[in-house]
Structure formats: C-alpha cells, structure tokens
C-alpha cells in the first residue's frame, strides 16, 4: 500500500525535501498533489536516512509546504512503447503533442535502461550512408557508432541534423528508423524539424521527442533517456536499424548544472558537476550492436561549443566518450559553404571498419587518405601564398592549392538538399584528385590509379562542368525567388 506524506520541509528551485519517509528507493517516481488539486510528477534523486530529495518535473512554483501531499509510487519513470510511436511527436516526457491519439503501449520500460554487457557487444562494421560527402567519404558513420557533431552559435547544425535525419540509410538493407530528441530548443526550431521531416516524408520513419526552451529544465534531463528507451525498443525488440539524433547536448548539460547548483553540490570545472562525465557516458554508451540481434542504435549527438571553445568541458568530455567528431567551421560558413564541415580536424575512429569492397567500394580507403593529405597540403600552400605571394609556389604547390579550392567548392559545399550516393562521392573525389599530378598520389595503389585517375584534360573539363552546373543552379534559384516575389 502506498503511503502519502505531508512532511515537505523545503523547496529550492526544482527540488523538494520530504522527511519521515520509509522504504523509498533511488529514481523512484513521485506523485505530488499541491493545494490547488493540481498533480505534478517527480523522481527521487537522493536519500539520506528518512529524508528524500525529490526532483519535480513541472517545476515548483506555487507549492505550499503545509498543503502538499506526496506519494512515492514504488517504480521508476517509465515510457510506454509501441511500434505505433513511429511517425509521432512527443514532448520531453513522452506525452503525444501532435494532436494524435494516445499510444497504447505494448510494454512500459524504465527510461534509465540497462547497460549492454561488453561481452555481448558486436563491433560496428556496416556503412551508413548520410548522403553528405564529407561524412560518407572522409569521416564515415558506421552502424552502432556514436559520432558527435561539434558546432558553435550561429552555425547551421539544425539544418545538418534535419538533412541527416531524412537522408540516412543502411545500404545493406533492413528496416531503418530515426529517433530525434531536441532539448531546450525554441518553438521555431522545433517547428522547423517537424515541418522538414513532414514535407519530405521522413516523418513516416521517425519518432520525435521535443523539449522546448520554456519547458522545465528537469524535463530536459529526461528527454534523451526517453528517446533512447524508444530507440532500444525499436532496435532490440523490433529489429530496426535506429539512428538517434540528440540536439543540443549543451542545453542538457546546462540543465544538469542548474540542478546541481540547487542541490548545493561542490562544483567542478566551470561550475558543472563532477559527475558530468559519467552522466554523459550513461547516454552515449547506450549506442551499439548486440551479437545475435539484427537491430542496432547509432548515435549522432549535436552540441554547440560555448564560445566555440573545443576545450570546454562539454565537448572535451564528449570527445573522450565517443568515437570521433564532426566539426563545423565558422570560417567555412562565412565563405558560404553548406554544410560548413571542416574536414581536417574532423574524425571518425571507426571509419576503416565500414568501408571497402563489399561495403562501399574498393578504392574508398585509399582515396580517403589521399584526399585528406592533398587538402592539408593545399591549405598549407594557400597560407604560404598569402605570405610570400603566388610566385613563391612551385607547380606542385599550385596544383594542391587548386585542389583545396575545388574541394571546398564541390566536395564540401553540396548544400542541405543534395543527397549523394557513396559512388557519386567517390567519383567526385577522383575528379578532384586528377587535378593533382599522378606522381603525387602516394597513398593510392597503382592499380586503382590506372582504373580511376582522369587525364589532365578530362579532369579540367569535369571540374569546369561542375562550375557551369553550379551557376545554372544558382540562376534557377534566383529566378524562383524572383517569381515567388512577384
């Protein structure tokens, strides 16, 4: 029998202290009835003797200590899951907000999940095609991997997230689903994601969890766990390949710091709690594959680096836990590149496991290494030219500088609407590499060079044709804008 307590002694921010409790457990769900008859939910986050600290999801405003009734429900916060969740939009606590009917759950699952036994983990080894050349060609995403995107204020990470959500697919086949969790975003941003996925039809394979900026910070802490619980059900019970996109993890960490301050905990780096690392790991490590099961969870967490500082605790700790990072560049964005992904510091530590013959193409690994080396050499040549002048460059340096320029124009800046197959990405890579003298392609097998390397004339024509096509596209877009204006 559930006991009801009227022994609330303190309310600080989103936290409530209750004394004289018995048999209460950590993470237990709490039902709170305030003096107006309104009911709110909470969870136990700390127990000391007969005192319990309760975290209130809806906030603590308007609570009268003497007239508040508290009941501990003897179970953790759960999410009712069902295959019918696909195509639906929920709030941060799993309640439908799209005007559709309530979900009739097949089962209810603790949102804290259970750790995957390391022995039963299967190594990620299957290519996921995002349709974005810089990711597919150079920083390949592998099924079961966790690959974050590091952004900064003002950069188009929302557009990139939406593009990945609607374009991502597993070439080896199987049911594919996207679970999208947004934390602390504005109403306009939330509507953008919903409209974009609806317009393109990607909503039919997606589940959205939306926590707005004006929603309680406590709800923000539950949102990624709700999304991952849904993903685990779809992956390991429904055998789907699930891609989980979490944005923005910075807002999640800020909410964690807010609650930590309310609990009067000793702060760590920059005021964040000392357990920020383990808390983030508890989210990121829920990605993976399990031996003997067809489904998998792949994660793309997105975070905005405060002040663009990659040494900030949030991106710093995220980098330790995850398998690489995709970095958006303010400099490239100012140049008009879309998406502005900086290929040089970006990295996917599992890329070698998901590419090659039978997965993408046999030339993928060699061209990936050569493109990276050529782009780096081209950037260095352009920096040297800016200091000493172009006359100081050798013919080889000029070729690499030309490669770097064309690489950014054609390979990186593909736009947010273009969906490139991996074969197209690899072919564009060869067209660009053919601008470099053949003798400089030291990272590619000679047999592959003979098969794919274009002659000087063909390479120039291929890249010039791309310039003409780009101009025609731009003119068509300008004419469309003018017509819509009329």
UniProtKB/TrEMBL annotation:
Matches recorded under InterPro entries: ATP-synt_VA_C, ATPase_a/bsu_AS, ATPase_F1/V1/A1_a/bsu_N, ATPase_F1/V1/A1_a/bsu_nucl-bd, P-loop_NTPase, V-ATPase_su_B/beta
ATPase F1/V1/A1 complex alpha/beta subunit nucleotide-binding domain mapped to chain residues: 131-348
Basic and acidic residues biased stretches: 477-486
Keyword annotations of the record: ATP synthesis, Hydrogen ion transport, Ion transport, Transport
Domain ATP synthase A/B type C-terminal intervals: 353-453
Keyword Mitochondrion carried by entry: no
SUPFAM superfamilies: C-terminal domain of alpha and beta subunits of F1 ATP synthase (SSF47917), P-loop containing nucleoside triphosphate hydrolases (SSF52540)
Organism domain of life: Bacteria
Annotated ATPase F1/V1/A1 complex alpha/beta subunit N-terminal domain residues: 8-74
Location of region: Disordered: 465-486
Coiled-coil ranges from the UniProt annotation: none
PANTHER family membership: V-TYPE PROTON ATPASE SUBUNIT B
Family from the record: Belongs to the ATPase alpha/beta chains family.
Function: Produces ATP from ADP in the presence of a proton gradient across the membrane. The V-type beta chain is a regulatory subunit.
UniProt-listed HAMAP family: ATP_synth_B_arch (MF_00310)
Protein name as annotated: V-type ATP synthase beta chain
């Amino acid at each position: 029998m559930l006991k009801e307590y009227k022994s609330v002694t303190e309310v600080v921010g989103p936290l409530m202290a209750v004394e004289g409790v018995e048999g209460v457990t950590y993470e237990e769900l709490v039902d709170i009835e305030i003096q107006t008859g309104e009911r709110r939910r909470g969870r136990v986050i700390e127990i000391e003797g007969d005192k319990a600290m309760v975290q209130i999801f809806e906030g603590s405003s308007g609570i009268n200590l003497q007239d508040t009734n508290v009941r501990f429900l003897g179970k953790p916060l759960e999410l009712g899951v069902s295959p019918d969740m696909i195509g639906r939009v929920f709030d941060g606590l799993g309640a439908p907000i799209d005007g559709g009917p309530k979900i009739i759950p097949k089962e209810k699952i603790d949102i804290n999940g259970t750790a995957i036994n390391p022995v039963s983990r299967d190594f990620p080894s299957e290519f996921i095609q995002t349709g974005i050349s810089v990711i597919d060609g150079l920083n390949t995403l592998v099924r079961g991997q966790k690959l974050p995107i590091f952004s900064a204020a003002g950069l188009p990470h929302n557009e990139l997230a939406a593009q990945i959500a609607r374009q991502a697919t597993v070439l080896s086949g199987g049911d594919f689903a996207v679970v999208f969790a947004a934390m602390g975003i504005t109403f306009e941003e939330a509507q953008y994601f919903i409209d974009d996925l609806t317009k393109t039809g990607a909503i039919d394979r997606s589940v959205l969890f939306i926590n707005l900026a004006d929603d309680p910070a406590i709800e923000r802490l539950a949102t990624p766990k709700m999304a991952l619980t849904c993903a685990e059900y779809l992956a390991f019970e429904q055998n789907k390949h699930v891609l989980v996109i979490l944005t923005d993890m910075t807002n999640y960490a800020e909410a964690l710091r807010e609650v930590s301050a309310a609990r009067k905990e000793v702060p760590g780096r920059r005021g964040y709690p000392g357990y920020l690392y383990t808390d983030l790991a508890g989210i990121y490590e829920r990605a993976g594959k399990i031996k003997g099961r067809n489904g998998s969870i792949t994660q793309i967490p997105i975070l905005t680096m405060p002040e663009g500082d990659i040494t900030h605790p949030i991106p710093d700790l995220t980098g330790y836990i995850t398998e690489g990072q995709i970095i958006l560049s303010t400099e490239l964005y100012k140049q008009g590149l879309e998406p502005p992904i900086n290929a040089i510091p970006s990295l996917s530590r599992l890329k070698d496991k998901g590419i090659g013959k039978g997965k993408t193409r046999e030339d993928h690994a060699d061209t990936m290494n050569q493109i990276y080396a050529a782009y780096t050499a081209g950037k260095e040549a352009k920096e040297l030219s800016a200091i000493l002048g172009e006359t100081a460059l050798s013919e080889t340096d000029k070729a690499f500088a030309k490669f770097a320029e064309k690489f950014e124009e054609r390979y990186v800046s593909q736009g947010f609407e273009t969906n490139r197959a991996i074969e197209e990405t690899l072919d564009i890579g060869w067209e660009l590499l053919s601008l470099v003298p053949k003798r400089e392609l030291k990272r590619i097998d000679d047999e592959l060079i003979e098969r794919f390397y274009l002659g000087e004339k063909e390479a120039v024509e291929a890249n010039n044709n791309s310039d003409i096509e780009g101009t025609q596209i731009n003119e068509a877009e300008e004419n469309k804008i003018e017509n819509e204006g009329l």
